[in-house]
Design brief:
The protein is of the alpha/beta class. The longest helix is centred in the first third of the chain and has 17 residues. The structure holds adenosine-5'-monophosphate-propyl ester (PRX).
């Protein structure tokens, strides 16, 4: 495959960074021997972490593996909200800050473990009163406010799987996901702040709720305090429901394999897939990685800047941090409001110790200039993290020098919605890092670079990133679509194909290049090009559309769409705008193509299959690969001329 050749051409970074001595002295894990120990007996390795958590009933078996179906901590009973809250409230963490929240306008709220515990208990009782029972799905369409983790933990407490939908997704996106999950209840807000403006979330939620017969009731949080339409008998204000709710709710005794949540993510088709995570293994996975990769200490304040609407927020703002009993910071909005130093202001204000963000944000900071972080005291920081896309060595070096002041290790963490937990990352007290490499699989995780038959390829060769054995936080299925789940494991039975291309260098370091399927990553947001295409063809002016990713200096990747117009339509800047808006309406503003190119036809093979490889070359404006297999090679030259290169 040509993509795999590109991977081989990737330059290997020669710089290396050993963990600073003062970091190693206090690190949670410093013995490299644990890699071998975990390899020899991975089940015991995971069970040791599981033993640090509280189970209502112990498990009988660590792993039951009937490929591609795994069960972890079989027979165990537990509750994840109990482990994130009750466990801490019983001890000295009772009045420690669990969540520190900062709103865009600068308003703040701090919830101690006890306060969070009480809110979660009360909201769990509210859910029950509204008729939500164990197993019922609850859709959550909330911005980054404390009620979002409260709602998630309350669902977990009563055993109702949540389906959080990113608040910047459109009403159609919410509708599509809710139709699939058949959620009974929807939790939303009157709005939220974004770059100084108010987003009208309730109105978007209403559109979706009206189209989803499964939704019986809607709970609305007052974030803004604005007037919004409320449907009598269906809509209820959060604060009114909470007023009379009893302060304690017995946690449901969940089976280790009971569903914790569904989170929709983009695949290679137009329909998002509902990734299913369960209870016991997921908790163990996020707990272990939180402890060892983020090296959490009792006094730390941990800030993951992702949105809880994505898996990073589920695992490393909510469940992971609370499972280890740390203080998790939540910020409502964007990094550059009102000025490009908002993040650094927050780091200074709350004395953040561990900071976890995405390469796209780091690239934007490098462009804004060093003067912004330099205005602030960042000396509290001791560890930095990166997630969501490959970090280019230059961005890594900037992060290391300007934010970490050359004394903070950087953990570049590779994982996916499907993996639930970080699978490839340095251990900050052990690993010598190389800028741009996620380094090595976490102990107990077996990752490989393989060919299409699942055979490991030699160092330096590009291949498919695969996971060779099950891991505790792995997805268990795709909601309502087991066949789609099995696809991950079908290429070679028993091996999980990640969809990423990667290589290992001579020292065994993993270098992840990114997706080799039709999934792209725009500013760390995972999108399917097929979803964008189906949004475009919903517009009457569009007969056919093909969207591909191209590299972008800030966003990592951006979208270029090639569009064939219907008769009677003329290309114009106004039409371009209209089509971009159409995509925003169907998916959300993040999915708007950067570029729309009107073409008379698309490059297709004789059998009519669109040759995306050629479209990618065109989008990148580079030399075209082999065009001889095209039905009409002339079309490519025509498009190229049109694009002016
Ligand atoms: O391509 C990889 C990229 O993000 C994809 C997963 O996206 P999503 O499910 O939305 O989860 C993102 C947050 C965990 C992967 O298939 N990716 C994620 N982290 C990295 C990465 N690529 C390179 N380096 C990473 N550290």
């Amino acid at each position: 495959m040509e993509e795999l050749k590109d991977i081989e051409a990737l330059l290997v970074e020669e710089r290396t960074f050993t963990p600073p001595e003062e970091f190693v002295e206090r690190a949670n894990i410093t013995d490299p021997g644990i890699y071998e120990e975990a390899r020899r007996d991975p089940e015991r390795f995971w069970a040791n972490f599981a033993q640090e958590l509280e189970w209502f009933r112990p498990w009988k078996k660590v792993l039951e593996w009937n490929p591609p179906y795994a069960k972890w901590f079989v027979g165990g009973k537990l509750n994840i909200s109990y482990n994130c809250l009750d466990r801490h409230v019983k001890g000295p963490r009772k009045n420690k800050a669990a969540i520190i929240w900062e709103g865009e306008p600068g308003d703040t709220r701090t919830l101690t473990y006890f306060e969070l515990y009480r809110e979660v208990n009360k909201f769990a009782n509210v859910l029950k009163k509204l008729g939500v029972k164990k197993g019922d799905r609850v859709a959550i369409y909330l911005p980054m406010i404390p009620e979002l983790p409260i709602a998630m933990l309350a669902c977990a407490r009563i055993g109702a799987p949540h389906s959080v939908v990113f608040s910047a997704f459109s009403s159609k996106a919410l509708q599509e996901r809710t139709e699939d999950s058949k959620a009974k209840l929807l939790i939303t807000a009157d709005g939220y702040y974004r770059g100084g403006k108010v987003e009208q979330l309730k109105e978007r939620a209403d559109e979706a709720a009206a189209a989803c017969p499964s939704i019986e009731k809607v709970v609305v949080v007052k974030r803004i305090g604005r007037e919004v339409p409320m449907q009598k008998g269906r809509d209820f204000w959060w604060d009114e429901l909470m007023r009379d709710a009893p302060a304690y709710c017995e946690p449901e005794q969940m089976d280790s394999e009971d569903m914790l949540y569904i989170l929709y993510t983009s695949g290679t088709t137009g329909k998002p897939k509902g990734v299913v995570h369960t209870t016991g293994g997921y908790l163990v996975g996020v707990y272990a990685t939180m402890k060892w990769i983020f090296d959490i200490k009792e006094e730390d304040t941990f800030w993951c800047t992702a949105d809880i609407g994505w898996v990073t927020g589920h695992s490393y703002i909510v469940y992971g941090p609370l499972a280890v009993g740390t203080t998790s910071l939540i910020y409502e909005s964007v990094p550059n409001y009102p000025q490009p130093d908002r993040f650094w202001e927050i780091v200074e204000k709350y004395s953040v110790n561990i900071f976890y963000t995405a390469p796209t944000a780091i690239r934007a900071f490098t462009r804004d200039g060093e003067e912004w972080p330099n205005k602030h005291d960042l000396s509290s920081l001791r560890l930095l993290g990166s997630v969501g896309e490959p970090i280019n060595p230059e961005a890594w070096m900037w992060y290391h020098r300007v934010i970490g002041k050359e004394r903070c290790p950087i953990v570049d963490t590779w994982w996916q919605t499907e993996t639930g937990m970080i699978l490839i990352s340095p251990l900050p007290g052990i690993t010598r890092t190389k800028p741009g490499s996620a380094t090595f699989p976490f102990p107990g995780v077996e990752a490989e670079i393989v060919d299409k038959d699942g055979r490991p390829v030699p160092p330096g060769r590009g291949g498919y990133l695969a996971i060779m054995r099950p891991w505790p936080a792995m997805l268990r299925t795709i909601y309502g679509d087991p066949a789609r789940y099995e696809k991950y494991w079908n290429q070679v039975p028993g091996i999980y194909f990640t969809g990423d291309g990667a290589k290992k260098d001579e020292d065994g370091y993993f270098w992840i290049v990114g997706r080799i399927d039709d999934v792209i990553n725009v500013s760390g947001h995972r999108l399917s090009t097929m979803e964008v295409e189906s949004a475009l063809v919903e517009h009457p002016a569009v007969v056919e559309a093909a969207a591909v990713g191209k590299s972008h200096p800030l966003k990592g990747q951006a979208l270029t769409a090639f569009v064939i117009l219907a008769p009677g339509y003329e290309e114009s800047p106004a039409l371009v705008q209209e089509l971009r808006n159409k995509v925003a309406e169907v998916i959300g503003p993040i999915a708007k193509p950067d570029e729309i190119i009107f073409v008379p036809d698309l490059p297709k093979t004789r059998s009519g299959k669109i040759m995306r490889r050629i479209l990618k070359d065109l989008a990148e404006r580079r030399e075209l690969g082999d065009t001889t297999t095209l039905r009409d090679p002339a079309i490519v030259d025509e498009i190229r001329k049109k694009m002016g290169y």
